[in-house]
Specification:
The protein folds into two domains: 141 residues, Aspartate Aminotransferase, domain 1, CATH 3.90.1150; 264 residues, Aspartate Aminotransferase, domain 2 (3-Layer(aba) Sandwich), CATH 3.40.640.10. The longest helix is centred in the first third of the chain and has 20 residues. The strands form five sheets. The chain has a seven-stranded mixed β-sheet, with helices on both faces. A four-stranded antiparallel β-sheet has the order 13-14-17-16, with helices on one face. It has 430 residues and is α/β, with parallel strands linked by helices.
Length: 430
């Protein structure tokens, strides 16, 4: 395992790559260049081993049964929660397991809706929305951090407002100052845009929201895997992130919430394992996080999620961030030097992560992606679940290259070399 004292130079990255079997797999007769980690990351051997070891050795239901296997499974499950919570600067009782970040956002939205409907008693009164109250999002949001708030507004009579972006897709703080006000009850935004790679001004937005008495929900899907993140230090009220974007399996994500807020929220999903007492007429619920974890849980996935956090911590998030920043800088520089390529997002590499979306003049994003795939280069194409942002930027779809700890500068150079041939191949070059 690479330790956090070792920077990610070429030697370290080559060692890391040996943990990822797919990087040795040829695609279309060429070595794989995987630049789609913004959608789903590859999984290293230690993470796969952790999930397999649990399935082979400790299979049992957690928080149920008194036999040895059940006790061991429960201990491992809760140790995993402690590990993942610590990874983002939280306490273990502030972390709720979900299937993904989308479910985590929906959990908060539906729980607030339940509070508005009168569930949860006096403790939940702080969450209740009245007609005319405002929910604030941004024009740059992934659909997962937009549609749940649209639905909550429709159910409660609240008004949904959006902070606009400028021509580079960067949030306009001047507009945020004007929009967030006395009727604002909740502000939801992404830490890092999955389209423009722009890093949001978290401190400023949190200050504006809290000054108005509003809650903050942070979509941290594109930040937690790539840089050191501490939710307590950021002072957000809720935050979400997904395992599959940070070396863990699919089907596991997490909701962070401040302890007092989680314990005041009424449940979203109900059933077994999240109750204390049940009669035919009513039920009493456990404190968080169990009150939000009805039914059989994602046990092996949670344990693998913790293994992914250990893997990333062993390398060092500071080193990962520095390495990806160098890759992102070269991506941005190289893209701007290719004729007919328009990069979406800020032009300053210091305002971005190691991700770049772009439009190829005269070539549809899907065609560009297919051309690159023929060269063994995996990228994302489409609107990236961010149609309003693409619409603002004047494109219907884009191509996205996203780097991670296992990518090299050679990967970026191979991508740029292939991309330079796209327009001439389709007859769109000058």
């Amino acid at each position: 395992m690479i330790t956090s004292t070792v920077p990610l130079d070429d030697t370290a990255v080559r060692r890391i790559r040996t943990d990822f079997a797919e990087l040795a797999k040829p695609v279309n007769g060429r070595p794989l260049v995987y630049l789609d980690s913004g959608a789903t990351s590859l999984k290293p051997a230690p993470v796969l081993d952790a999930e397999r070891a649990f399935a082979e050795t400790y299979t049992a239901a957690v928080h149920r049964g008194a036999h040895t296997l059940a006790a061991e499974a429960t201990e491992l499950f809760e140790q995993a929660r402690e590990t993942v919570a610590a990874f983002v600067g939280a306490a273990s009782d502030e972390l709720v397991w979900t299937s993904n970040a989308t479910e985590a956002i929906n959990l908060v939205a539906y729980a607030i809706g339940n509070a508005t409907a009168g569930r949860g008693g006096e403790a939940a009164a702080r969450f209740r929305l009245s007609p005319g109250d405002e929910i604030v999002v941004t024009e740059a949001e992934h659909h997962a951090n937009l549609i749940p708030w649209q639905e909550l507004a429709a159910r409660t009579g609240a008004v949904l407002r959006a902070i606009p972006v400028d021509d580079e897709g960067v949030l306009r703080l001047d507009e945020a100052t004007a929009i967030i006000g006395e009727r604002t009850r909740l502000v939801a935004f992404a830490h890092v845009s999955n389209v423009t790679a722009a890093i949001a001004p978290v401190a400023e937005l949190v200050d504006l929201a809290h000054a108005a008495g509003a809650l903050v929900v942070l979509d941290a899907c594109q930040s937690v895997p790539h840089m050191p993140v501490d939710f307590h230090a950021l002072d957000v009220d809720f935050a979400v992130f997904s395992g599959h974007k940070m070396l863990a399996p699919t089907g596991i994500g997490a909701l962070y919430g401040r302890r007092e807020l989680l314990n005041a929220l009424p449940p979203f999903l109900t059933g077994g394992s999240m109750i204390t007492t049940v009669t035919l007429e009513r039920a009493e619920y456990l404190p968080a996080p169990q009150r939000f974890e009805a039914g059989t849980q994602r046990i092996s996935q949670a344990i693998a999620f913790a293994a992914a956090c250990d893997y990333l911590s062993g390398i060092g998030l500071d080193h990962i961030a520095e390495h990806e920043h160098a890759l992102g800088r070269r991506l941005l520089e190289g893209l701007t030097q290719i004729d007919g390529i328009r990069v979406l997002g800020p032009r300053d590499a210091d305002q971005r992560t190691g991700l770049a979306s772009f439009d190829v003049d005269g070539v549809h994003a899907h065609d560009a992606g297919q051309f690159l795939d023929d060269k063994g280069i995996a990228v994302r194409v489409g609107h990236h679940c961010a149609q309003p942002l693409h619409r603002h930027l004047g494109v219907t779809a884009s191509t996205r290259a996203s780097s991670y700890l296992y990518n090299t500068l050679d990967d970026v150079e191979l991508f740029l070399e292939a991309l330079a041939d796209v327009r001439p191949f389709f007859g769109a070059g000058s």
